[in-house]
From TrEMBL:
GO MF terms, alphabetically ordered: histidinol-phosphatase activity; metal ion binding
EC numbers: 3.1.3.15
Binding, Mg(2+) 2: D90
Family: Belongs to the inositol monophosphatase superfamily.
Top enzyme class: hydrolase
Residues that hold Mg(2+) 1 according to the record: E72, D87, I89, D217
Protein name: Histidinol-phosphatase
Function: Catalyzes the dephosphorylation of histidinol-phosphate to histidinol, the direct precursor of histidine.
Taxonomic lineage of the native organism: Bacteria, Bacillati, Actinomycetota, Actinomycetes, Actinomycetales
Length: 268
């Protein structure tokens, strides 16, 4: 089996797994008996987060038993040149408050490269996926899938910028840089979390950025962005989800956005 065929098969497998997860998370969304705990980093975690990750792990053990798995709630299990990276519920704070903007994120890392990603937001009735060389798509199902592409906006003052919040920018010493980028942009909205990046992939938004993220927050987003024609780096311009922060654009705006973010420091 060649690489493209194998990744197509991987997409089919993970789509079936996420179908199961979506059924579970939707039942727990707005449930009156939802259990919410606080993790050591003071972020919330629910029984839905833990349950969703366990479902994915159990089914990967059945269908991809040789692969390693890394998840937000249970960490790393196994070692392999292929590793599945899981964020069972991206947007847990939204989930807890009854806001429908949350999603399950699953990515596949192969030989150190993120080659596949799937994002499923069942409360929005939306799903996005991509694999290396196969393009990026959105749809409720495989049969209704639509290929997606980033925008062709090539000027910051014509660009739409999405972010999650102002938290974290000051810690990086880049709050002034972020505000400068926001002021230079045509439009700013805080769509937040995974949705900002999927909107960039669809061409509805041109720039998305966050100052503080983990690998599982970003991995699934990368192939969807890049297969749609966009660019995904950290805030120093390094490709991929490895830098604890993110800048995603349609590609045409990337260097200018980086330059603006880095043009001024909070310390001078």
């Amino acid at each position: 089996m060649n690489t493209r065929s194998r990744h197509s098969d991987d997409l089919q497998v993970i789509a079936g797994i996420i179908d199961r997860v979506d059924q579970f998370t939707l039942k727990r969304f707005r449930a009156t008996d939802l259990r919410v705990d606080t993790k050591p980093d003071f972020t919330p975690v629910t029984d839905a987060d833990r349950g969703a990750e366990q479902i994915i792990r159990d089914l990967l053990a059945q269908f991809r038993s040789r692969d390693a798995v890394f998840g937000e709630e249970q960490g790393q299990k196994g070692f392999s040149n292929r590793r599945w990276i899981i964020d069972p519920i991206d947007g847990t704070k939204n989930f807890v408050r009854g806001v429908p903007v949350w999603a399950t994120l699953v990515a596949l890392e192969e030989d150190g490269e993120i080659v596949l990603g799937m994002v499923s937001a069942p409360a929005l009735n939306r799903r996005w996926w991509a694999a290396k060389g196969l393009g990026a798509y959105t749809g409720k199902s495989w049969t209704s899938a639509k290929q997606i592409h980033v925008s062709q906006v090539n000027r910051i003052d014509d660009a739409s910028l999405s972010y999650s919040s102002l938290d974290g920018w000051q810690d990086r010493g880049q709050l002034r840089g972020f505000l400068r980028l926001a002021q230079a942009s045509w439009r700013t909205r805080a769509y937040g979390d995974f949705w900002s990046y999927m909107l960039v992939a669809e061409g509805a938004v041109d720039i998305a950025t966050e100052p503080s993220l983990e690998l599982y927050d970003m991995a699934a987003l990368v192939p969807i962005l890049t297969e749609a024609g966009g660019k995904f780096t950290d805030l120093d311009g390094n490709d991929g989800p490895w830098g604890k922060c993110a800048l995603a654009t349609n590609g045409l705006l990337h260097q200018e956005a980086l330059d603006i973010l880095q043009s001024v420091s909070d310390n001078n």
